[in-house]
Amino acid sequence: MARRGNRRGWYGKAVGAALGVTVLAVGASVWTAQAGVLGSSSPQAAASASPSSDVRPVDVTIAHASDKGARGVNITIDDGPDPVWTPQVLDLLREQGVKATFCMTGTQAQAHPDLVKQVVAAGHRLCDHSVSHDTTMDSKSEAYQSREILDAERMITEASGGVRPMYYRAPGGAFTPYSRKLAASRGMRPLGWNVDSKDFERPGTDAIIATVEQELPNGPTLLFHDAGGDRSQTVEALRRLLPELREQGYSFGFPVR
What we know:
This protein has helices spanning 8-12, 28-32, 43-46, 85-96, 106-111, 113-121, 142-160, 177-185, 205-215, 232-247, and strands at 72-78, 101-104, 125-128, 167-168, 189-190, 195-196, 221-225, 251-253. It has ten helices and eight strands. Helix 6 (113-121) crosses helix 7. Strands 1, 2, 3, 4, 5, 6, 7 and 8 form an eight-stranded parallel β-sheet that branches. By secondary structure, the protein is of the alpha/beta class. Residues 4-53 have low confidence and may be disordered.
């Protein structure tokens, strides 16, 4: 997995809860469809590293495979939610009938809880992408790693209205044995990727598509972004790629847990 540059500063500017949040009314079936739904536990309790009755540990190894099998493809969307681009990505996924995994930073989730709820209501899955997207986490203390992972879990869970993240993706792939074990103990499967679309670099829609097509034999988990700048190329690339992949016989699923 290629490590992207440290974009920690961008996320620092995003800190702060959004005011005037629109509360979405969703059916109970939507929430229970997510494996990480909270019971009576508070979001603050969810941040604790100690086991609790509604948290089931998962495998500590980094997941890449799809629950759809050999012809499965996992669409993963990182770094949001973003008020401009996440709604466009959600609209596109709905039009195409595709479910995705959204790897959110704690600061963005806290700032845009309405969007977190929309992601959940649409049947997508949540992923903890740390608080501040520090790509040097693997060189930091275990205490620092713990804060980044557990605080983000709490922030995302609160923003979602009680739905826990099902995965943990280290920023830039900066996993450590400790961070993987901690995330897995909280029911969040460490999540890697096989195909880095390079969309964050904004190389052009055609280049993003070409990269995905070239790297798809490497495995099923595709990496895109819905925040961190202009994501219009990402939206257009997905608009063209999703039907193309379906025509090639691929099914869209979620990473294994």
